TrEMBL record:
InterPro entries: YkuJ-like, YkuJ-like_sf
Name of the protein: YkuJ family protein
Entries under Pfam families matching the protein: DUF1797 (PF08796)
Organism: Lederbergia citrisecunda
Length: 84
């Protein structure tokens, strides 16, 4: 649960960026492997999650809810930590 809280705190920090500044982005990694990049667009108050798979293919998802964004990131990280 603390990992989910940590993700939410990182997303909240992104939301505090002023609209005139660069688009805030964060990388989420496990063991040095980048799993996804998250961008926050202050003008529309939306998050974009760009997920990278093992073949470096990218999938993009857009969310307007911080909780749903955090859950998506959490699931991506958990899949890497606990592969099936």
């Amino acid at each position: 649960m603390s990992q989910l809280i940590s993700i939410i705190q990182r997303l909240q920090a992104m939301q505090k960026t002023e609209a005139h500044e660069d688009i805030p982005q964060r990388l989420f990694e496990v063991n040095g492997k980048t799993l996804c990049q998250v961008k926050y667009f202050p003008a529309t108050k939306t998050f974009e999650v760009e997920e990278y798979d093992k073949d470096s293919n990218k999938k993009k998802y857009q969310f307007d809810d911080i909780d749903i964004t955090a859950i998506e990131i959490f699931e991506i990280v958990q899949e890497e930590k606990n592969p099936s």
